[in-house]
Structure formats: C-alpha cells, structure tokens
Design a protein that fits this description.
The protein has four domains: 109 residues, Cathepsin D, subunit A, domain 1 (Beta Barrel), CATH 2.40.70; 27 residues, no CATH class; 103 residues, Beta Barrel (Cathepsin D, subunit A, domain 1); 94 residues, no CATH class. The strands form six sheets. A five-stranded mixed beta sheet has the order 2-3-4-1-5, covered by helices on one side. The chain has a four-stranded antiparallel beta sheet with strand order 10-9-14-15. Strands 13-17-16 form a three-stranded antiparallel beta sheet. By secondary structure, the protein is an alpha+beta fold. The protein starts with 6 loop residues before the first strand and ends in an 11-residue tail after the last strand. 26% of the residues lie in helices and 24% in strands.
Length: 378
C-alpha cells in the first residue's frame, strides 16, 4: 500500500476480533529471531482501522530476508473492512514521514541492507479478474513484459505520500480548466477509484452519464446568484473573491471560519452547515462558469449547463452507476503528467461487475475534497 508506511499482520494474541480468527496470524513464540518491543500502535485508514503493538523480527519476502524489521502485531481489527479481506495484513510502501511510531518502512530496510539492485519498485495490476494471477510487484526494478515504450518520471514534491505535480485534466480532449495551473496528485495503490475534487468529478460524471445526486444548495445558488456570478466573471472580478463578495462565503477563499466559531458559541450548527454548503456550491459554480466562458458559450447555455451539473454531484456513498451499454460512446478522460497526456478509455475508467444482462457498471471516479487552506488533491 503506497498510501501508508507501516507493516502489520494479525497477532496470535488477537483474541476478540473476528477478522483475526479468519486470517493467518503471527506467533512470536515460534520465532527464534523475534525481539520484543511492545510499544503501542494504532492506524486509521480511509476505511478500517487496527491497533496493537510493535514487534521486531526478520521478514521473508520472495527470495529476500529483511533483518530486524519493526512491524505491528494487530490485536484489534474492528469493523468489517478486514473481516472480508482476502489479505492478512498490509505492507506500507509510503515514506517514513508518515510512518506510525516512526518505524523504518520495510522498503527502506531492503535498500539499506543491499537486497535490491535499484531503489525502484513497480506494480502490474491485472484487470482480467478471471485470470488466476492478480498482478505483480517487483522490488528492485521493472518487469519489461508488462509495459511498452518508456516510462515517464516526475519528481516527488512532498515526502510522506508519493505526491507529484499534475497538469490539466481533459474530458473528450477538452480542458476541464481545473488543473491548468497545476494540481497535486498522490499515487496510492490502496485506493480502488480515481479520487478528485467534487468540482471536476461532477463534470466528468456528467459527461459520461453517471448517476448523481441533486444538490438543492447548488440549484439555489444558480437560481439566485447565477447571473450575478456570471456578470462578475465577465467583468473580470477576481474569481477567488466572488463568493465572499456576494455573501456566500466567509472571507476570501476560506470556508466556515467565523461561522464555525459562531456555531459553537451560539449553537447554530445547522445554520453553519447550510451556509458551508452554499459556499461550496458557489465556489464550484465559479469554476464551472470560468471554464464555459473560455469555450465561448452563451450566458443562457452556461446557466443551463451549471444547473445540469447541480443534478450530477457525486454520490456521498462514493460510487456512481453508468450504463454498460454505452461504454463505446463515452469520452476519453486524460491526465497530464510530466508534460505527457495519458488517455483513459471508458473500458479503463469504468468498473464492470458481472457479465451479460446482469452486468453492472460503476464510474471509476469518486469525490475527495481537502479542506482549505490545503490545495486540491487527486
């Protein structure tokens, strides 16, 4: 998992979690190379969590033996996430900066102990679920049988996660306008979907016909303030200041700061939440309108299009259904990385479950919003 940095396995001392009972467990008493640590540890993932304590032992990985590796013996695995998992534990391949307890990640020790020829690891994920082989991870290089041409390398911009700078996102060859000035992205092997800001995921899902949810706050913003926002953009008002100037956001480009304080003091929680939703809707409308203005659309077409997007917001459950029968007509979605455009076809960005009339298709895109002042993240 490139989105975390710790190695953990279920412990033989995990007595009260059903997930432990259904998986293979580590028995320290049977290891002659085990060293006791005992420092408590807990990890919270996007879905699921574990708790336990640190131990130290040799770890065998393929033909390698990593000596003196610090890892977590999980004694608690609550919930259903790991209950139904086909794996016993998680091997984190992120940076030490996000390692719980400051433990040195296994990959660091592999390099430090001279076990690999190159400080490179690579993944191949097999999309053909009917095959017996789910994929491959190579430590120390790249398997040439699983790629054509040269790889594109980009620098890590912030250690912790495998974070890099990404350029424009295009739908059907047309810019969404959202990442023209650059966006931050994380390569996370532990995430099944492509996650991005609600603003652009809504546009993508609209273009591919994915089912969404209707936002009444969004429709209210368009109805009450749509023309005013459009006029301000045409008059070249600074986009970041529009929503605060019309009174929907607190200050410039920040959300719910004073409102949050007010809600605690006066108990106006519902008011704060509603105001925050209106602010978010306004900020999305500004971005959408900017992009439509660049494409020289008429004002009526712009307002009508924004109103349609208000009915296509990504599902809070994270998954949006699409029609399996129209995959061939769906546009390509392109990401610009290292100056090169990478195109994904519908067959590549739609998850298809089952075959024939019973098949179900799900958009491979889900919304992920990072609270300000941090920049948007993919």
């Amino acid at each position: 998992d490139t989105g975390s940095s710790n190695l953990w396995v279920p412990s033989a001392k995990c007595y009260f979690s059903i997930a432990c009972l259904l998986h293979t467990k580590y028995k320290s008493g049977r290891s002659s190379t085990y060293h006791k640590n005992g420092k408590p540890a807990a990890i919270h993932y996007g879905t699921g969590a574990i708790a336990g304590y640190f131990s130290e032992d040799h770890v065998e990985l393929g033909d390698f033996v990593v000596k003196g590796q610090e890892f977590i013996e999980a004694t608690k695995e609550p919930g259903v996430t790991f209950l139904v998992a086909k794996f016993d534990g998680i091997l984190g391949l992120g940076f030490k900066e996000i390692s719980v307890g400051g433990a040195v990640p296994l990959w660091y020790n592999m390099v430090e102990q001279g076990l690999v020829k190159e400080a490179v690891f690579s993944f191949w994920l097999n999309r053909k679920s009917e095959d017996g082989e789910g994929g491959e991870i190579v430590f120390g290089g790249v398997d040439p049988s699983h790629h054509k041409g040269d790889h594109v390398y980009v620098p890590v911009t912030q250690k912790g996660y495998w974070q890099f700078d990404m350029g424009d996102v295009l739908v059907g060859g047309q810019s969404t306008g959202f990442c023209e000035g650059g966006c931050a992205a994380i390569a996370d092997s532990g995430t099944s979907l492509i996650a991005g800001p609600t603003t652009v995921i809504t546009e993508i899902n609209h273009k591919i016909g994915a089912a969404g949810v209707v936002s009444q706050e969004c429709k209210a913003v368009v109805q009450q303030y749509g023309q005013q926002i459009l006029d301000m953009l045409i008059a070249q008002t600074q986009p970041m200041k529009i929503c605060s100037q019309i009174g929907l956001c607190t200050f410039d480009g920040t959300r719910g700061v004073s409102m949050g304080i007010e809600s605690v003091v006066n108990g106006n929680v519902d008011k704060s939440v509603a105001s925050d939703a209106m602010c978010s809707a306004c900020e999305m409308a500004v971005v959408w309108m900017q992009n439509q203005i660049k494409h020289n659309k008429t004002q009526d077409l712009i307002l009508n299009y924004i109103n349609q997007l208000c009915e296509r917001l990504p599902s809070p459950m994270g998954e949006s259904a699409v029609d399996c029968s129209v995959l061939s007509t769906m546009p390509s979605i392109s990401f610009t990385i290292g100056g090169k455009q990478f195109d994904l076809t519908a067959e590549q960005y739609v998850l298809k479950v089952g075959e024939g009339p019973a098949a179900q298709c799900i958009s491979g895109f889900t919304a992920l919003d990072i609270p300000p002042p941090r920049p948007p993240l993919w």
